[in-house]
Amino acid sequence: MLKFQRRQRLVRRIICCMLDRVIAEAQQAGRLDRQCDSSYDVTFPEIDVEDNQQLASSVNALVTALVTARQQGWLSDETAMRLLFKFAGEEIDVHTELERIKASSEK
Fewer CB within 10 A of the terminal residue: the chain, N end or C end? Predict the structure, then answer.
């Protein structure tokens, strides 16, 4: 939930920067009066718990499918990890993660 909220704040800042620039350029070019109200508000829909439940259900189905595919020999651990992290929207070096897994299992 916090990750989604952070992303919303980031996207809000990006949109505000773009809008501020467009307004400034329009005022500078004379296409928009400098005295006009240039305030705005960028709002996003609330992050719904139900959305998170659907996401959790989807992740569960994906993990189950990846485990089955791995057991059938249809894909490697590395490919399964890549697919899982891609679905989660995370950029993780799979080789580094595999080394960490190996190191933690040796302890």
Answer: C
